[in-house]
Amino acid sequence: MVATLMRLRSLLVALPLLAMAAASVTERASSNALQAAGMGAASLSALGVAHAHPVAPPPILAPDAVLSADAVLSAVAPVAPEQPAGMLELPPESEAPVAAASADELSGVRWTVPRRMRLNEVCSHWGLWPSELRELNPELGSTDWLDEGTRLLVHREDSRRPTRSIGAPTKGRLHAGIPLPEGAHWVMREHRPHVFGARNTIEGLLTALRVYGADDAHAPPVRIGEISARYGGKLSPHVSHRSGRDVDIGYVLSEPADSGRYWRFADERNLDVARSWRLLKALIATGEVQQVFMSIRVQRLLAREAAKELSGDELAGMFDVMNRDPRRATIVRHESGHRDHMHVRFKCEDGNVRCRARSHGGL
Q: Could you tell me how far CA 84 lies from the centroid of its own chain?
């Protein structure tokens, strides 16, 4: 009986030491993993990462001390974690609040007819059958011509068929896509069968474009290219743009755009660096952007502007042209063919288990 009690006492004394050893092993493993990913202590501090469960130091025991169960539990139990620090945020450009996209705004999207057009031509512009357009706009009746300035409903949300991005960007589709509405700070081609996206894509895009144009009356409108077709799927000549999460966005240029071409190469002579950085910063600040593909030549120009606000480590985490660690992933990545526009990929919607974040080969 005495021997059993002595063994139990030895076990109780060892428990706090075992807990400390386990915590030390876990901490070393986490530190090694973070270093392998290119994150040091400074990065952890900036991102607000803290140890989730620090362990209390073991009590100092006299040789003949008798431990109670409460003493053992208090020694092993983790200390209550501190509240994590806020996530790293880019410096705000303006104190003026900018309204984010609302659910009501996207439940019914309207379009203004730019010139006198046949109804069939309008349907071609939006990838709709005439019967679908008439159902959305019963007031059209049997008319075949639409006057300039006519406001048409081109999308109505159906609660029974929620928007979903399905599959990967290069092998996916879009369920009940939402078209990008018109706005004061962006322009789209007149032909718009490929401006449909997932809800978080369209909401994030609207918020960023409004931040870009806020408090800047002279900001030229941003050119928006293709997103996805109404139901997603293959969209030539793109490899991706299939699941409503990829958007082509023009750089802001200091010279008037040539009406003969939608996209124009950006370089040190014509790139409006300050406004292009403001646009990129607004996109990333939405928290919905997964990756931005951009020519390394344009990255160099924007990185110089960004250096006025960001530290060297923050620049290295944003632009791969500034990153010297091949193990570290950056938000902005080089991709050939993107000197005249950036390709922005948005994240999967929260809770969408059918969405796949990564591509299968290529962009």
A: 22
